[in-house]
Amino acid sequence: MLAEVTLQKLKKEYEKNPTNKVRHRMLNKVGIVELITDVDTELNMDFCIDIKTHGITDQKDSEFCWIYAGLNIVREKVIETCNLDNFELSENYIAYFDKIERFNMLLERLISYKKNKRDLYDKDVASLLGKGITNGGYFIELAHLIKKYGVVPKNKFPDSYAFSNFYEINLILSRLLRMFYLELEEISDVDALKENYLEKAYTIISNTYGIPPEIFDFEYTDKNGVYHIEKDMTPKSFYEKYIGVNLLDEYIEVYSYEDEKIQYNQLYEVKETSRISGTQDNVVLNVSPNDFRELLIKQITNREPVYFYASTTSKRINGVWLDIIERYGELFDMNLKLDKNSILRANGITNCHCMLMTGVNIVDGKVNRWKIENSWGNSFGTQGYYVATNDWVEHYIHAIVINKKYLSKKQLELVNREPIKMSLWNMRFY
Fold this sequence. Notes:
Elements: H1 4-16, H2 19-27, E1 49-50, H3 65-82, H4 91-115, H5 123-131, H6 139-149, H7 161-164, H8 167-184, H9 190-209, E2 216-221, E3 227-233, H10 235-242, H11 247-250, E4 251-255, E5 266-270, E6 283-286, H12 289-301, E7 306-311, E8 316-317, E9 320-321, H13 324-331, H14 340-345, E10 352-363, E11 366-373, E12 385-389, H15 390-396, E13 397-403, H16 409-415, E14 420-422
Parallel strand pairs: 4-6, 5-14, 9-12
Antiparallel strand pairs: 1-10, 2-3, 4-13, 5-6, 7-10, 7-13, 8-9, 10-11, 11-12
């Protein structure tokens, strides 16, 4: 415990500064955030490069931002091809197969741990059982799910109650994982045990999410009022005809972080990040901060939205994402500023959220703001679109998904190399 003499010394130093009394009077009546708001937190939705997208989606409480961000990109292909004002793909469809594939992958991982004689004292085993089934994911996971299962229009498989109200389902599935592990310790017929638990999970997921359609008719009325129908489509044939983008081959996740184990201009494969059996673990290209920024700007200026991951440690105010933590420091006369590398190094990326960058404003060669398409409905920001300050983008966007055609020759050479395998625990952005 703190010694009394230490407390008295702290109090004395505090009282020596009259500003502390003034701050207390304010903070006793007003929230901190109210004292850091000024003119630069006002919305300005004018951008020299503004990619027009078609309507805001709403993930509600689902935590499936990584699905929404990806589907919001590919749905634009359907809108363009079919001459529509708006269109949405079924996020529930992807979530259904994600749940099943994820449960199966975690069963296989536990079996692998047992074969390698790794027990509860192993941090990977303990982490898997501790986390259980969650909803978070990555772009590459979405790409694998789309390749295997295709997509369907939202009206063919609308959101289930469990899609947004997932707590109980995840709780039950996580309990099944732990029961499986305990039985796995004692049993010899591993295949039969796995089949039994997979059947239980399938029953729970299908009861709550529903069974997705295997064949459907695609009906729509275009902007000219003309009705169209294409009969007997499968989810994969629909994707191939109306979207046709090879997400796995055409895109790469790009990061920017460096420490004693992670270097710039390297390709890494992060072990045990795959959530779909038989697929490669997540592969990421790690580049310098300047290259990271250039790739982000290059894709936006070529009128292609950028899927990105950001920390919500620093919040939005009135529809503007900005570095409020640095401003908190100004309020208390302290330096709380950290660059992105330092934030990552100290595990400061929390509450990771996926969104789309759809615009940028550049004046005299300098960026002063960015435009974001979110998936929190149209009641926030400007009908669901947000502004981000440049410092927020610099400090809190830690990963972007880039079309490989925008990579430099050197970066393409890196992407085609055999990746360096890296432990999940050594990668600060996971």
